[in-house]
Write a structure and sequence with these properties.
Layout: H1 2-11, H2 13-16, H3 20-25, E1 28-31, E2 38-41, H4 65-78, E3 82-83, E4 108-111, E5 114-117, E6 124-131, E7 148-158, H5 166-180, E8 188-196, E9 200-209, E10 212-225, E11 228-242, H6 243-251, H7 257-260, H8 263-269, H9 276-285, H10 291-298, H11 302-330, H12 339-357, H13 364-374, H14 381-384, H15 386-414, H16 421-431, H17 435-444, H18 455-461, E12 484-485, E13 493-502, E14 505-508, E15 510-511, E16 525-527, E17 530-538, E18 541-546, E19 556-561, H19 563-587, E20 593-598, E21 603-608, H20 615-630, E22 636-641, H21 642-649, E23 663-669, E24 673-676, E25 691-700, E26 703-710, H22 711-732, H23 736-770, E27 777-783, H24 787-797, E28 803-809, E29 813-819, H25 827-837, E30 841-844, E31 848-853, H26 859-870
Parallel strand pairs: 3-6, 12-15, 27-28
Antiparallel strand pairs: 1-2, 2-8, 4-5, 6-7, 7-11, 8-9, 9-10, 10-11, 13-14, 13-19, 14-18, 16-17, 16-19, 17-18, 20-21, 21-26, 22-23, 23-24, 25-26, 28-29, 29-31, 30-31
């Protein structure tokens, strides 16, 4: 598609690529002899800038990295651009992205499923910190690849009157180069290119100086796809330039790393030994060719080159990775095995691996402190988060050490098998073991492991973007006007008109019923005395499911809300906001909401946190929450235009993720917590009554769930607890706690005994089942077996090349599956499908899956079908 689009634009280059400046200064269009791309230059040349070596490396530093930005910012302010501070690197305002990957992302919003651009000023200039993880193996090696960089965002929306279009954009960029940085016009080359996004596209001019790409001016003119598009009414200038590239060019250092990290890189270089002159020769070639070819050109043995270059590449990578971690953790990102946190853990462990490999006497926490100190003139908030960064990195380093201590045992088990790329990925994802650790340990045991060059690229790509689940509906909504929403008022009864009926679903022209949304349960009540059992919102339409439906379209009906349930849900929702604010105050600014649920019985809040909560932390969070309740602070509710809300409260308002609306409903507890939220809430914190933290658990890596009860639900919980204590006293006497401890210790002993018995039974069962394995596949049902038993049997029978799928028959059907890494089978998907067919639910990973089912009469036919498919 891109190639066809490039040809289309190229054939009409005078319309798309030729700008006013080219005629005024004399830039001529030429075709590259080597790659065929078109470019514009003043001097005659055969090659485009992509097909040339760097010609600016001279090793003499002239201007500081931060001062380069200050100079650029000053130029654009002088020329009518409003300066904007960088947005967070963790992107919570746009669906589908974990990280801010380009400056334009700061201004992308989603409205009704479409991407729109909302800028706080027009035109503007922004030093947007961006994170990208698609080139991790090259970071530290090529002299230019990074996982973090500042994109100089020069943006304008042009509607024919406001903002500016491509002629002015290129004029500004040319003047910046020639007037401000005194770059000779004949050294500038403009390369024709294109840009294709998910719902828009355009053409672009990349600009190079002495072989180095500095920026790319994208002219986003078309909405839709290249096959079906319209010209945009508001065209977008999306010029993104690399601050790191500018600093590198202006200083002529061997790599960009030597100038962009300030005194941090000087401190790191003191930890290693290397040949500066040799590296200078290497750096001139490192961007375009492989090491063996470079060694040949320089006239040195490849081993000698690696010996001199590898330690320097390691400290360059450490400098980059630590800076990325500093920015990410400051903005609430946590290293983990989930989502974008996965990418952070990849670079963290890569950096720790380099520290171990070269025996460097440094800690990542110290390097982060050096970065924060150097960058204070550019981003002072980095110094404010150092204590949290230090704590989080210490926890991660301890995990890394524990993993490293297990590596030998892991490698010994697989040393006699083929250690494939998929196996290395599996070890990293399931055990946290880096391929470098596997290679090191395997070599001690006499086996050489080849690590794929794109290993970390493949790992990162799996976790770079959020996966959005599609919501399927079976209600005909065509032609309906948006439902008038009355549930934010105090009304508990209302009259409305039936506008659509679909089976048991009824759509009214207005409603007081709150639909299930944002983790909050829906209201219940009646419509014309018929019980309402479900309420859902589809876009701007609210649908009500009735227990039975005898209503007719155009009928006027009377709705009544269950007041008691509504008030309890309000208590729980406001309490979740209070707990969120309390957790952030007690645990640190890295705490963000990762999910929530509010039912009539209880509510839960999932927060981002790097370890399980201690009893002391739980107590502090609960105490602070109840202090906020006692203060009876107002709970303010108002609707603001999105840009106004973001400017007033920052991106912290997006606790529940991206909101696809132009206007945001803000819930504010003054001085304590503020969030964009569509739920129903109390009028002041005192109405929550009391908050009790019922439990906390680490539900996944980097996510802790806090379950609470508040208000009436908290009172019911305490009453039930008091009854239990009273009943216990009747049985064991007044000293309930002592007797409970005795019972607990006895239970632990019996549990251990039971586990040993299960293992013995599993070993016995396994011997019988071994004979039933056909073509390394075993699919069997086992009578009187629970999940623990079939897991134990699987553990005994599993090997690298086996598929095991067991069904334990008990009060329900327990399903457990295993697929060895050599089978190339996704057992999680098979288990999920099997459980669904048995009327239950399940899932898992490629290697392990588990779940439950209920339809025992279907089990035999299912087993037969699975055997036919897998054996």
């Amino acid at each position: 598609m891109k190639d066809k689009l490039r040809i289309r634009f190229s054939e009409n280059y005078e319309k798309y690529y030729k700008v006013r400046l080219f005629d005024e200064v004399g830039f001529k269009r030429r075709e590259c002899k080597f790659c065929g791309k078109f470019f514009w230059s003043l001097s005659e040349r055969e090659n485009c800038p992509e097909c040339q070596q760097y010609e600016f490396i001279n090793g003499k530093k002239k201007i500081d990295y931060i001062d380069v930005w200050k100079t650029i910012e000053k130029f654009f302010i002088k020329n009518g651009h409003t300066p904007i501070k960088t947005y967070p690197v963790v992107c919570r305002w746009f669906p589908g992205l974990y990280f801010t990957v380009a400056s334009i992302v700061a201004f992308q919003r989603s409205v009704a499923g479409k991407t729109v651009f909302e800028m706080p000023a027009n035109p503007l200039i922004i030093p947007q910190v961006c994170l990208r993880f698609n080139d991790i193996p090259n970071v530290g090696v090529t002299g230019r690849h990074l996982t973090n960089f500042i994109m100089i965002g020069q943006h304008s929306i042009y509607d024919g009157k406001n903002g500016y279009w491509k002629d002015d954009c290129i004029d500004y960029d040319y003047r910046l180069l020639t007037e401000v940085f005194k770059i000779k016009p004949e050294e500038i080359v403009w390369l024709e290119d294109i840009w294709v996004g998910p719902s828009a596209f355009g053409y672009s001019l990349e600009y190079y100086v002495k072989g180095l790409e500095l920026g790319n001016a994208v002219f986003t003119e078309f909405v839709g796809t290249p096959d079906n598009y319209e010209i945009m009414n508001e065209k977008v200038i999306d010029m993104g330039a690399g601050l790191e590239r500018f600093a590198w060019l202006l200083n002529g250092t061997p790599t960009c790393y030597d100038v962009i990290f300030g005194d941090v890189i000087k401190k790191l270089k003191k930890k290693i030994k290397y040949d500066h002159n040799l590296f200078l020769e290497y750096a001139k070639l490192a961007g375009n060719t492989d090491k063996e070819k470079i060694a040949s050109i320089i006239g040195i043995d490849i081993e000698e080159l690696n010996k001199n270059v590898a330690p320097l590449e390691a400290v360059y990578a450490i400098a980059d990775h630590s800076k990325t971690l500093l920015y990410a953790i400051t903005d609430g990102g946590l290293p983990s095995n989930v989502g974008g946190g996965y990418n952070l853990r990849v670079i963290l462990r890569r950096a720790l691996g380099f520290i171990d490999e070269f025996g460097l006497d440094i800690s990542l926490s110290d390097v982060c402190k050096w970065h924060a100190k150097y960058l204070k003139r550019l981003d002072p908030r980095l110094t404010e988060s150092l204590s949290e960064v230090d704590e989080i990195l210490k926890v991660e380093e301890e995990r890394y050490k524990r993993t490293k201590s297990r590596v030998r045992d892991i490698v010994e088990k697989i040393i006699n098998t083929e250690i494939t790329e998929e196996k290395l990925i599996q070890l990293y994802e399931s055990e946290g073991v880096t391929p470098e650790l596997v290679k090191e340990e395997a070599e001690k045991l006499g086996k050489n492991i080849i690590i794929p060059k794109d290993f970390y690229v493949k790992i990162s790509e799996r976790h770079m973007q959020e996966k959005e689940e599609e919501r399927r509906i079976n209600i005909n909504l065509a032609g309906l006007e948006p439902t008038e929403l009355l549930y934010y008022t105090d009304k508990m009864e209302f009259d409305a008109k039936v506008v659509r009926i679909s089976d048991d679903w009824v759509i009214l022209d207005k409603t007081c019923f709150y639909p299930e949304s944002g983790g909050q349960d829906h209201d219940i009540g009646t419509i014309n005395n018929i019980p309402v059992i479900d309420v859902q919102k589809f876009g701007s339409i609210v649908a009500h499911k009735l227990e039975k439906n005898n209503l007719k379209e155009n009928q006027i009906v009377h709705g009544v809300i269950d007041k008691k349930r509504r008030f309890q849900l309000m208590q729980h929702h406001t309490s979740i906001h209070i707990i969120n604010g309390s957790a952030r105050k007690i645990l640190g600014n890295h705490v963000w909401q990762a999910g929530s649920g509010k039912t009539e019985e209880r509510a839960h809040l999932d927060i981002t946190h790097y370890q399980a909560l201690s009893e002391k932390e739980i107590e502090k969070i609960e105490n602070l929450a109840n202090k906020i309740i006692k203060k009876k602070l107002p709970v303010k509710k108002y609707v603001l235009p999105r840009q106004v809300a973001e400017k007033k409260y920052s991106m912290r308002i997006y606790q529940g993720g991206a909101i696809p609306e132009k206007e945001l409903r803000i819930i504010e507890i003054p001085g304590f917590d503020v969030e964009a939220c569509g739920g129903t809430h109390l009028n002041n914190t005192g109405e929550a009554g009391k908050i009790i933290i019922l439990s906390t658990e680490r539900i996944q890596d980097g996510i802790v769930r806090i379950t609470i009860a508040s208000g009436n639900a908290a009172e019911r919980y305490e009453e039930e607890k008091a009854k239990i204590v009273e009943e216990c006293e009747k049985i064991v006497g007044k000293n309930v706690i002592l007797e409970a401890k005795k019972l607990f210790n006895r239970w632990k002993k019996l549990k251990k005994k039971l586990e040993k018995n299960i293992e013995k039974v599993a070993a016995s069962e396994s011997k019988k089942l071994e004979a039933k394995i056909v073509n390394n596949v075993l699919i069997e049902k086992i009578e009187n077996a629970d999940m623990k038993k079939i897991q134990s049997i699987t553990k005994v029978l599993s090997t690298q090349d086996r598929i095991i799928l067991l069904f334990g028959i008990s009060d329900k059907i327990y399903v457990f599956g295993y697929a060895g890494p050599e089978t190339n089978l996704d057992i999680g998907k098979i288990v999920s499908k099997a459980c669904t067919e048995l009327g239950g639910k399940g899932g898992g990973t490629k290697t392990l899956g588990q779940g439950i089912g209920f339809k025992k009469d279907l089990l035999d036919s299912l087993i037969k079908k699975l055997r036919d498919e897998l054996i």
